[in-house]
Amino acid sequence: MLQNEDEADGGGFVPTPKREEIQDSSEDYDKKSSNKGLKDVEISCPIVYGTMAFWLGKKANESQSHKWTVYVRGATNEDLSAVIKRVVFQLHPSFTNPTRVVESPPFELSECGWGEFEIAISIFFRSDAYDKQLTLFHHLKLYAEEEFCPLSTKKPVVVESYDEIVFPDPSEAFFARVQNHPAVIMPRLPATFALPLVPIEHEDEEKEGNTTDHLLSQWFINFSDTDELVKLAAARQQVQSRIVMLRRQMVTDGVPHPLEPARVL
């Protein structure tokens, strides 16, 4: 669906959480080895990327019905600038300057438009983390999935995806720089592990790139472990209830050998 030059919209579905492992070619691996990579060690950086769209209500017209924002944020709103250098959002070619570059957090852009389309999100990392880009794709969504859900100017349509970017065999410089940073998950290392001293640039520089107090944060999806455990517990309960119902049905139908009690790990 094409749009006018001044518009932009987006939407998408939440895919299964993934782990994007950064892969090196043999040449890249040799370069990293010469840069004193930490073998058999990996660092992961949880991220969330997605879109949030508000209907414009009385201000809506044929060319601009929604205002939306596309973004990359920390999974629990951490500052990602320790890992990510910049993010490039590729919009529909009908937009003026469809390639939008965001050099600092928050890594986001906002537009107005009427149609839905796929947005390419290219993430560029800090030089000591990885020297190539990672491109993700997100479909901008403007309308809720519910068939009879009324349009609202106050409640947005939010579509987000959780992902983990994994850096295997990180350089000593990268490891030393982010080892105490909340945006990354560090491996448990043996007590005897000694990391060589590595100069860290801007070590005392205060970062303000977190999205905790972001204007849209009230609508962000919570991808915390607690929520996932609650969802798993609810799903387990539904499965157990279904098994009990099927067992009773088999007994009622005269099946000679009912199912054994289910064992849930």
TrEMBL record:
Residues 17-34 have a biased composition (Basic and acidic residues). Its main location: nucleus. It comes from the Eukaryota. Gene3D superfamilies: YEATS domain. Residues 1-34 are annotated as: Disordered. It is found in: Nucleus. GO terms for cellular component: nucleus. Residues 37-181 form the YEATS domain. The keyword Nucleus applies. Pfam families: YEATS. One of its GO terms (biological process) is regulation of DNA-templated transcription. The keyword Membrane does not apply. Keywords: Nucleus, Transcription, Transcription regulation. This is YEATS domain-containing protein.
